[in-house]
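Re-run with default settings, no changes from the original entry. Doing this only to confirm the output is reproducible before filing.
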Amino acid sequence: MVEGIFGTYEFKHHANKGKVKKVLSVLREYRETAKAIADFLWREFFEKGYFPHKKSIKKEQMQHIQSKLSERYKYVCLWQVYGVLEGYIANLQNQFARIVWRSTLSREDKLILLALNNIKGWLRYEKESITIYDNGEQREVEVKAWHKHLAKKIFKHLLGKNRRPRFEGISLHLDGKVAKLEPRRENKAKAFDYWLKLSTLDKGKPVLIPLEKNPYAESLEGEFRNFYQLLEEDGDIKVKVVKELKKRNYVPATDTIAIDLGLNPLIATNNGDLMGRRFLDFLKKMDERIVKRMAQVQKNGGLPSKDNKYREYVKRLREFLKNEINRVLNRLTNLYKPMKIIVEKLDFRSPELSKRMNRLIQNFGKRYVKEKLQRLRQLYGIEIAEVNPAYSSQECSSCGYVDGENRKSTQEFECKCCGNKINAQVNSAKNLLERSSLREFHPHLPKKQVLKVLIKKHLERLKGCKSPPLDILKGNPYYREFLESILNPRQGLTLS
């Protein structure tokens, strides 16, 4: 598929049990084939230090992979597996960069390791020099043996820490090689709008899956692509069709808006808006039902994942999360029409919810927010910037004072230094906006370094103050740790 803006939309099917069974048999074989392809790619990776480009994989290599699928199916599977593994490696690259930035290495050594990370030179790098980029300047520098050894060590640590994709539950991502959507033919099968023609394990015997129209998908400007997703759900299948969407005309009306993501409300902006105020109330109700049902099933010796009612509750939760997140972010976009959205690193948790509910929200809520922000970027060209959120909930957006006791509750913030009273999430959003324009706050800066920068900036503000609040500063453990090394006695600020 070419790069563009794509959406996937479900088309309700009316396949009988026999057709569903054939599709599921393809899916099971597809998953086994995906595992075999992944094993082949990993062997290549550890032998050569990188995955072979998917277009360079020869037909003979694919023929060695045992599968009941046709060669065309295997190549479709290869592209899907390759995409998943590329995403996995990209995630390791981000983690590698965070580890290096947070280390105590010199700046030069950090830049060398980051350059190795950028070209994926963790396992094998034969050259004695590498190009680094420092403040816009390009330099060729020496790569020492210990740089290579450390890069390999960090990467292997991350491989052990992050479970590799298993492909046990992947869905079918199919293109025109094995699937084709055909419109209803005149004088035949008038009850259905489309037929999805799908190759099966029986050569020359495709299955035809009848589909209904999706009015919403068809109303969107764009063109349907010859690309389909088939998912398994409770012994049945779901059919989704991919559509390339037309980028919409968008005239920004606001330069930048910063948002703080939480549960009560879902979103707060630096302008004081609180959106999704009933979000937590619904989650509490769903949490109560899920926990109660889970306890009943376990008491009877069953597994919640096999219980239809439990699965229905989880499904409702996922649908609510996706719909509410989309609704609130759409409202935000319509209200401000921003050129840029500042967002913190995502963390959805609440002490008012069970561990299981927090885990579900973390897994699905974060994904839906990221997907929606990505869609806003694609459709409207809105820039999405992620900033370091460390201590943003404890820092006063008015005077800059940082104290764990500033935040009274999930909604109340009262600064112990200047007395500023404000909604806690709005306060965080204001801090995120401020940090987005400061070079010191790059996303991978360690928390301790963030705290040091915040305290230094706050003390700079106090230099001209005739009566600085020393009693408050001395009673704050954050300041006790950094105050001696930062304060200049000649400025009139001392601990005594």
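The first strand starts at residue 6 and ends at 10. Residues 5-25+173-245 form one domain.
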